[in-house]
Amino acid sequence: MVAALVMAGVATGAGLPAFIGLAGGRPVWQAFAWVLGGAALLVVGGSALDYVRWRRTRYRIGADRAELHTGLLLVKRRSLARERIRSVDLTADVLLRVLGLVKVRIGTGENTGAGESTLELDAVTREEGERLRRELLDRVAATAVPGAHREGELAVLDPAWIRYAPVSFVAPALGGAAVGALLQVSDWFGAQGKVIGWVRDRFLDTPVVWVIVALVAGACAAGVVGALGLWIEMWWNYRLEREPGGTLRVRRGLFTTRSLSIEERRLRGLELVEPLGVRTMGAARVDAVATGLAAGEDSGHADHRTLLPAAPRDTAEAVAAYILREAASPTRTARLTPHPPAARTRRLRWAVGAALAPVLVLALLGVLLTDVLLYVAAGCAVVVLPVAVLLGRDAYRSLGHGMSGGYLVARSGSVRRATVALQRGGVIGWTVKQSVFQRRAGLVTLTATTAAGAGAYSVYDAGESEGLGFADDAVPGLLGPFLDRRAEG
């Protein structure tokens, strides 16, 4: 039934423009017959294939392994050892919710390629999905973290958090996408020229500058509306809970509901992320730094590791403390060491260089082609250079590193400022980098290697002696022998 309804939707979406195109050169009844026949073939064929796939799919949860058998011509038999299973995530779009079904994704968190580290059941009843999740994650009860800490509900959605959606980087991207979608849809119906002509007529006697301002404002307004809608879809009904046995569970979603689970024993810390727009409003989001996150989950679907959406900074700090079972979040209690002034010089140089590059290109084109581009280059320089200087200075002020109990803390970034609190015991190595320019300035970049999260977290442009001492103190004995040899040399 799910496949039939999906195919019907696809057929409707594809059939409408096809019907309009056919109706232009032949009788309406004939065009309708062609489109209806193609739609019926698509729905029946897709439903039949999915029925065969469903009939040939078997799964079994044994004492030691979870097994999945699929395929008709090419039969696949895959299994995962239960002790390797790290997550059981449930997802249901609107159609599945109406039918009382969910998709179950069982994962080990390894990135072995070709989906070999996951088993996907599409779809089972909601009751069966919950049963599988409880059964497969029940083994963690014996390894739960001891101690008296907050259990049950750790955070719940505050609708006021929606105010942070319009200031995210998603808004301008959605605005551009809306303009592109409008032009594409109008082209399907042969009306793109009319749309462009209508817009041109509205601004017939308006100066070019105001035309650009109006169009940009319209795209931004569309982006804000899109960002609000996307936020509601992603985070409505959000709830973060600690379940018995030491499992963190995030549930969220309006139309498509998601249930994501992370074992606490996989956590190696947290990252407090503050994009520029969100930071100006005093907010931050909390991401998990956990082992066993597959590359696709960690980068392609970054929201899979988000434990708290953008919320007031104090709320984010409190939730981070609950998650880590600490009295206060290490990102709050750590006393960060500022970096030398030479680090500020490097950031100003990078920011101004990045701003000047397009200005110089425009100026060169203006000399070769037209004086108009020279005025454009001058205007860009007046606007962009002060912004670049402010961002460079802000990037320097954001630099810092320190320790808080069992965590090392590092902060960096301006457009996207991130403060990571990483368990010192989770650091498996240090990478020390020093370019020619850093060597002259007495700076060094230290990268803590870990099996969790992004795999590496850096302390950028720290003072050479202070930074190396920090790395040695954070993980004693790991870097010390190399420092001793350097001193002897």
Salient structural properties:
transmembrane helix; membrane; alpha+beta; six-stranded antiparallel β-sheet; YdbS-like PH domain-containing protein; seven-stranded antiparallel β-sheet; 489 residues; transmembrane; UCP026631; 16 helices
Give the helix/strand layout.
Blueprint lengths: L1 H22 L4 H28 L2 E4 L3 E6 L5 E6 L5 E6 L1 H6 L1 E7 L10 E8 H12 L14 E5 L13 H19 L3 H11 L5 H28 L3 E5 L3 E6 L4 E7 L3 E9 H5 L2 E8 L4 H6 L5 E7 H12 L5 H4 L7 H28 L2 H28 L1 E5 L2 E6 L3 E8 L3 E7 L2 H6 L1 E8 L5 E8 H11 L5 H9 L1
Antiparallel strand pairs: 1-2, 2-3, 4-5, 4-10, 5-6, 7-8, 8-9, 9-10, 11-12, 11-16, 12-13, 14-15, 15-16, 17-18, 18-19
Helix pairs in contact: 1-2, 5-7, 12-13
Any overview of this molecule?
It comes from Streptomyces agglomeratus. Keywords: Membrane, Transmembrane, Transmembrane helix. InterPro entries: UCP026631, YdbS-like_PH. The protein folds into five domains: 54 residues; 122 residues, no CATH class; 63 residues, no CATH class; 163 residues, no CATH class; 56 residues. Helices cover 48% and strands 26% of the residues. The chain contains 16 helices and 19 strands. The strands form four sheets. It has a seven-stranded antiparallel sheet, with helices on both faces. It has a six-stranded antiparallel sheet with strand order 13-12-11-16-15-14. The protein has a three-stranded antiparallel sheet with strand order 1-2-3. β9 and β10 form a beta hairpin. It is flat, with a radius of gyration of 28 Å.
